[in-house]
Amino acid sequence: ETDRSGSVKAGRAGMSDYFRVMGTNIRMDGSVDIFTEKNYSYEERDSNSNTDIYVADDIVVINYKTDGRVQYTRIPKSQTEREGYNYISFKWMKRGNDLLLFYNDHKDNVSRDLSRRPYSMGDVRRAVLVMATVDSRGELTREAVYDNKELDMVTMIKESEVFNNEALILYAERNRVFSKQRIRFGRLTLPY
Prior knowledge:
Layout: E1 6-7, E2 14-15, E3 19-26, E4 32-45, E5 50-64, E6 70-75, E7 79-82, E8 91-95, E9 98-105, E10 128-134, E11 140-147, H1 148-151, E12 153-155, E13 161-163, E14 167-174, E15 183-189
């Protein structure tokens, strides 16, 4: 109840109306995942203009086990972006019975207690690319893959693509407005 993502109160139990189904997956053990994300937009108005603000917050992985049990794993994050979904949201891939989720996040959220509300990502140029691992028991671990500021690049997660569940093809832009090389591609390959 405290993070406004859901409720356990009688008559109001369930997830926030802002959660959207982002995809599905079948694990090697035959269980089925549904990926949901708290995802919405609103308009910010001032005297001169209107700006669309896009929000992509917590991810909840709902795993339907082959024996009928249901397991929920919450991946806390807080992302906002003006004028589009280029840097926010997430991509996923499977590794055996584990799930790997990739997203930009505030660097302090990587080690933050999962029961606490996450820090807002803020300026994506100062964020880190995170790999969150959800194992077959629903346990979550997170680690920073790289720091956008150190690389002088910003990962555009929307434009990045999972390739054959073996690699994440990364699309990134230069942090500076005026530079000769604005776009880079890379491949993040993980050992089995």
